[in-house]
What does this fold into?
Amino acid sequence: MILPINTYSDEVLRRKAKPLKESDAQLEELISNMLESMRNAEGIGLAAPQVGVSLRLIVVDLSLAEGYEAASPMVVINPHILSVKSFNSMEEGCLSIPDVRGDVVRPSAIQLKYRDRNFEECIGEFDRLAARVIQHEIDHLDGTLFVDRMQRRDRRKIQKELDALSRGEINTNYPVAFHEDSVVK
It folds into this structure.
């Protein structure tokens, strides 16, 4: 089932998500729905808070990105970054902040501890686009949006677009959830 994606002004995007304690049929359904919703929106990453669920769960599928066509979808539960290497700046966007893009500095490689779709504990090394997408989605679990990480002068350049999103002026090809009473100031 395709879920609506919560937008910039929704308070669920500003909350720290709760860890998952176990896997069950509801979690499996949420994972499947998130993957379907992400693909429908032509995204490469999606965090549970973006679909209104405040849990530490992300899905990533880089197969839509050039050079990553063979990538398999990844489910990341309760992620924790163990280490980082070097930093670089790259333009990012977000399904919750449609049509807004900006440069963000992030580590270019990470070591990540997490649980997979089967709730098995994993430690993985990720670099380049995979590292960036995972960090972007982990930020969602911590109530941080990519625009919060932009340099102040760059953020000022997109403020009009953010204000428009806060007013509900949203044009996407995928379903969104807009909650007027949770506008971020």
